[in-house]
Design goal:
single chain; 194 residues; 27% helix
């Protein structure tokens, strides 16, 4: 959806359009591309950036359990007992702390068996503390695990709107040798009716 950018003077739209058409005929056109994304329109809801609350990426300590699930009081006593039994049977999934699943495994197929090793990007000394804390937190929760694999990709710090940082990994070099999976994903319009 990128479109060519035409610089316009501060004239009326019709006059500016005619002048631009004339300029295009006489001058070289400069091209620019931009992508914009509005994630939240604070002003529309009367909110300012100072009073908006940022949602944490994940919790390190469990704050919610199966005991926090509200069972509909309009159910019969027998139905409420059945629901509570079902909740207790699967109580480990009612948590606000993320965990890893062991039900499925993803396999990345490569076109080249030579391991991709990319040296780390230089990190400012004061940012090393941010990285260490984030890695320790993810290790504690089980989102990541220690590895002695021959592959290495560099870390990247991405600044979030609230001023904190998100630790990401640049897998660009690994992606270059990854076999593309041509399996098309179903569209939401196909999934939701099912």
């Amino acid at each position: 959806m990128l479109k060519r950018y035409y610089h316009r003077d501060n004239k009326s739209d019709s006059t500016a359009h005619e002048a631009d058409n004339q300029k295009q005929a006489n001058e070289q056109i400069h091209q620019a591309a931009s992508v914009a994304c509005v994630t939240e329109d604070d002003e529309a809801e009367g909110m300012t950036a100072s009073n908006t609350e940022t949602i944490p990426l994940y919790n390190l300590k469990q704050k919610e359990t199966v005991d926090n699930v509200v069972v509909n009081p309009e159910l019969t006593a027998e139905q409420q007992v059945e629901v509570k039994q079902l909740l207790n049977e699967y109580r480990e999934i009612f948590s606000d702390v993320p965990t890893a699943t062991h039900l499925i495994e993803h396999k990345v197929e490569l076109t080249d068996m030579e391991p991709v090793k990319h040296k780390p990007y230089p990190i400012p000394h004061k940012m090393q503390e941010v990285i260490d804390k984030e890695i320790d937190d993810m290790l504690a929760v089980g989102v990541i695990e220690r590895s002695e694999a021959l592959y290495a990709s560099p870390l990247v710090l991405v600044k979030k709107p609230d001023g904190s940082y998100r630790v990401c990994v640049n897998f660009k070099e690994l992606n270059k040798i990854t076999v593309f999976d041509p399996e098309p994903m179903m569209s939401p319009d196909d999934i939701f009716p099912k």
